[in-house]
Write a structure and sequence with these properties.
single chain; alpha/beta; 3-stranded parallel sheet; 3-stranded mixed sheet; 4 helices; about 25% helix
Length: about 130
Amino acid sequence: GFPADVIIGTKTHNTLIMEDEMKAVAKNLYICTDDGSYGFPGMVTAMLDELVVNQGKKYDLVIAIGPMIMMKFAALATKKLGIKTIVSLNPIMVDGTGMCGACRVTVGDKVKFACVDGPEFDGHLINRSEEH
């Protein structure tokens, strides 16, 4: 029930999933393809920049879910734009109990385990000390 803009990124139109499901819940749906075969030609970070910088849209929060590299660059982009960002670290989880330690991550100055302490964290604090 909360109006949210949704940006989906995919390599090509043929790899796009859940378009209809996202249309049903999104206030605005923006689709980006790396190869330009459908929607906005480029990465989700370029679409976010287009919306905020060029179109003047204002966002209070970004929730980034997907490949680690996309979430990293989304968090870097939103930090420059001054938008709070939550990332989901599901991709680094292995056993889901915290026993293996594979999902250990530094959030601010604290060591956390994505599987038991998250998986959602402040994207601007991942692997960064708060004083930096």
